[in-house]
Amino acid sequence: MAPAPARRLAVSTRLAAWALILVLLWSVAYPNAAVVAGSFAHGLGYWRAFIESPADREALWTSVWISVVSVVAACAIGVPLAFLLARREFPGRRALRAVATLPAALPPLVGVVAFIFLYGESGVITRAVQAVLHRETPPWSLSGAWAIIFVHAYTLYVYVFLFISAGLENYDSALDEAAAGLGAGRVRRLVRITLPLLMPALAAAMLLVFMASLGSFTAPYIFGGGLRVLATQIVTTRLNGAVGVSYVETTVLALSAVVALVLFRWLERRRQYVLPSKGGGRPARRRFRSPALRLAVAPLAAAIVLVLVLPHLMVILVAFARDGAWTTQILPPVYTLDNFRRLATDPAFLSPVRNSVAMTLLATTANVIVCTAVAILIVLRRFAGRGLLAALAALPWAVPATAIAIGLASTFNRTDLPTARILLIGTFWILPLAYFIRGVPLVTSAVESSLRQMDASLEDAARGLGANAWLVLRRVILPAARPGLVAGATLAAITAVGEFVASVVLYTHANRPISIDILAQMRDFAFGSAAAESTLLIAIVFLFTLAARERARA
């Protein structure tokens, strides 16, 4: 018979696990089950229509290969940047570290508009290059698959950067020192020690990038140039009245993401990656030995900083531009403070800001509590239903934001306790619920990646020394989870405060978020007012990032 503490731990694990499973079943799976059921409303008729449609087949293939290339591009940027900032000391490192997460600060709609102002056929960069080359036509067209990948790489590399940075926070320098003492070179240590230990963080980041690319709507809609992807094809199909086929397209998109989930989980778990050492610490940042590198790294860091902040600077610049005055010039010719004056004096502008901040804090707090518990159970416990809990936590990235919103709208449109329905449509609480659902995989995957680097024997040792469950959680598990928890909560908050796709389906005038108000200003061609609100949104995200960084240092 098992000892009493072990039995109590097993019972509490099962109770906690099934409570969380019920919460995720109700909030995540239940609203989206209607979408899958709708795809079979007429047997296999809708599925046959999908299979026989060349447009749908093209959309599926294009979605998959763009997502794969987006993962490669995001890793090519995020991994070297994380290593550079974690392992090297150089002039400009602090500035580069401060702006490295800024691409996530722009909400999708505002970010796409900023890219149009910068790199579109009439953009600032495009016109400047055209003038330098004395060309009569623009040197490029920001359209098609590679334009979408360009936007994805810029906005999604942040996942890779934050997750790898969190992994390096837990990395034990004693491992490198031991390998170097045995004669292993720098490349061999990287391939045989560093990257395998970082594989959980890298696999989690790659999974999130792939699913974000697969469900991306704004960039393909604006830059696709007629290119079909499933996210935009779903909307087109619904607008054409083929609701049943749109359910099939949504289901296929979800199945594609589930296949990716299985592949990345296999990559993550095909070996056991833990930090066996209980001493040591993070490797100290070192300066470059080569004089040429020391001279080149400062201007290179400055160039990277400029590229990262340029879209934000463009939004700020447009915030000071007078509407209607900027036509064919490279830069706006007339500037004014009127946009910010209206933002500061008109209560109608401040209400969406308060709504977004309040809903973001509610959703992120719920994410931190629920997702930390989910990650601890998945990584450190064994129980019946563990696979189901992991699948439910990853499910929101497998479903487009539009489908999540439609599922919530169709499920929580009335109160019916026997079917577990509560009237949320038209209330303040529907958007925090949508934001919470969107943040579940972000926070869960980030915490998992940190916990998988923790040696499980530390928990056993603490229990063997007489520590109770609460003390083990507070002194052993949560400190190990903190780097990933801070990274995941930051991403969830940044995503929620500027969320647009689900908001546009579910908002009411009373809980109108800032992203919807920005859209309203843009529809009225008040680009200066929209840019002023976007500037305020960037400032809010920056404050979230600073708060998270201070929390990580505490």
Short description:
The protein is mainly alpha-helical and 554 residues long.
Structure description:
Helix 13 packs across helix 23 (527-553). The chain is mainly alpha-helical and 554 residues long. The protein has 23 helices and no strands. It has one domain (4-553): MetI-like fold (Orthogonal Bundle), CATH 1.10.3720.10. It has helices spanning 4-39, 45-51, 54-87, 93-99, 108-119, 124-133, 145-169, 173-181, 186-214, 218-223, 230-239, 243-269, 291-319, 338-345, 347-380, 386-394, 401-411, 430-451, 457-464, 469-497, 501-506, 514-523, 527-553.
When the domains are counted, the total is: 1
Unreliable parts: none
Question: At the fourth CATH level, what is the homologous superfamily?
Answer: MetI-like
The top level CATH class name: Mainly Alpha
Please give the share of residues in helix.
Answer: over 70%
Shape, principal axes of CA atoms: globular
The second-level CATH architecture is Orthogonal Bundle
